[in-house]
Amino acid sequence: MALLELRNVETFYGPIAAVKGVSLDVADHAVVTVLGANGAGKTSLLKTISGALAPQAGMIRFAGAQIQGCDPWDVAAAGIAHVPEGREVFPHLSVLDNLRMGGFLRRGAGNAADFERIFAYFPALAARAREMAGNLSGGEQQMLAIGRALMAHPKLILLDEASLGLSPLLVKEIYGIIATLKREGGAAILLVEQNATMAFEVADFCYVLENGSIVLEGTAERLKGNEDVREFYLGIRDTGVRGVRRWKRRKRWR
Question: DSSP alpha helices (H): ranges in the chain?
């Protein structure tokens, strides 16, 4: 049995369907990525899992218990930490206090060992531990948001657009941390991304989401060889006889 299971989940904003019959699995300690363009429904999918949105249909099971429709604090207490798009750190709290907020549901959180662990992953935060989070750079805020999630000692981290708005160097650093977490066999990670190149480097399994529906799934290695994924997500095109394609090919998910 997978750590997280979704079966035919549907979520609406009023009459508009944002998540349409999505089924997916995340195994214990695995990194699973959901690829999709802006508006594909990726953020809505994570909000549905974490309880910020209530699904209108379908089942969500985590660690053997159904959690669809649960309040966000109950989902967090069950072992799911959500790193939202845009970081959403507490700008008027210090780095240390932001980290303490991540562990507020866990007895004994905020001890020296917790901070040492986070600062070992993110040395840049150690140097600015007592500064207001709003003064950090975008990359440092992303590190802080991930560190805040780790303070809860979660079984699963929902990570929304970790690379959004960051320089290539910072993206590489963030994904290096994700790879480290994977090697250490800690929390499973469900990662939603537009940056397929980086996501494929760390993912065990991938789903492609379009217009709220899963249109393709498979191992990272298999999807990297898919013609549509190569063109529409990796920017690799097959060329014509003279080296230039003369038409725009439509997607043919298979």
Answer: 42-50, 72-78, 95-102, 112-121, 123-126, 138-150, 168-183, 196-202, 220-224, 227-232
pLDDT tens, the chain, 254 aa long: 799 999 999 999 999 999 999 999 999 999 999 998 888 999 999 999 999 999 999 999 999 999 998 999 999 999 999 999 877 899 999 999 999 998 887 776 667 888 999 999 999 999 999 999 999 988 899 999 999 999 999 999 999 988 887 888 888 888 888 888 888 878 999 999 888 888 888 999 999 999 999 999 999 888 888 888 888 777 766 554 445 444 445 566 54
Structure tokens, 138: 């975008």
Name the residue type at position 192.
Answer: V
At a CB cut-off of 8 Å and minimum separation 6, what does 46 contact?
82, 84, 158, 160, 190, 192
Determine how many CB atoms are found less than 10 A away from the CB of residue 140: 21
DSSP assignment letter at 202:
H
pTM of the complete model beyond 0.85: yes
Pairing of strands 4-13, 16-26: antiparallel
